[in-house]
Amino acid sequence: MRTLTRVRVWLVVFVIGLVVSGVTAFPLETETRLLARLVHAGWSPAPEHLPALVDWVDRVHQGVVRTNQDYPFLAYGTDWLAFAHLVLAVAFWGPLRDPVRNIWVIHFGMISCVAIVPLALIAGPIRGIPWGWRLVDISFGVFGIIPLLFAERGTRRLAAEAPQPTAATPTTVKIAE
After folding, report:
1. Which of 2, 125, 126, 141 could cross-link to 116 by cystine, CB 3.0-4.6 Å?
2. Helices (H), the chain
3. Which of 27-36, 137-146, 168-177 has the lowest mean pLDDT?
């Protein structure tokens, strides 16, 4: 597979991750209800082996339901979170078209992935987020940076293979009067 195609495949993987994580930020009540049903299913070992997880899922679901009932405007914040993910996905159109010229977007994405770690480690305890869930949040940065690392490496290879410009010849610019 050609280098440019590989770079684009890795970028598409990253963009899909952004879109999926963005779109799933909209239906939180439905998602937490389904997750609560899943951990309470008769076949689920979670209640017996992971009671803290079950309690956390129940607490989050109850919080989302109550918030949506009493303070639905707070969900607007997660709507903006979802929107931000979708806008960031659009930003990767530049690297998909011309990764060498737009490598800065790939670097921006990598920096953002790394920044997830301190955010989760600092804000998580302040907001009362359990350690295991902070690890889930951190995993978005860890797994997100992987396709970007491959895309960045391929983009560097593309830049090295690109023909280098020769000495520019002066051009005459005619200014209209």
Report:
1. 141
2. 3-23, 28-40, 46-49, 51-70, 75-91, 93-97, 103-126, 131-161
3. 168-177
Answer yes or no: are the C-beta atoms of 141 and 110 closer than 8 Å. no
For residue 29, the SS3 value is helix
Cβ contact 47:40 at 8 Å = yes
The band of 162, judged by pLDDT with boundaries at 50, 70 and 90, is confident
pLDDT bracket for residue 43 (50, 70, 90): very high
Q: How far is CA 32 from the centre of its chain?
A: 20
CA 157 to chain centre: 25
User: For the whole prediction, is pTM greater than 0.90?
Assistant: no
- In this structure, the number of other CB atoms found within 10 A of the CB of residue 18 comes to 21
The per-residue pLDDT for range 140-161, each reduced to its tens digit, is 999 999 999 999 999 999 999 9
- Cα torsion angle, 53, 56, 62, 64, sign: negative
Q: Where does residue 92 rank: exposed (0-12), middle (13-18), buried (19+ CB within 10 A)?
A: buried
Question: CA-to-CA distance for 75 and 122, rounded, in angstroms?
Answer: 23
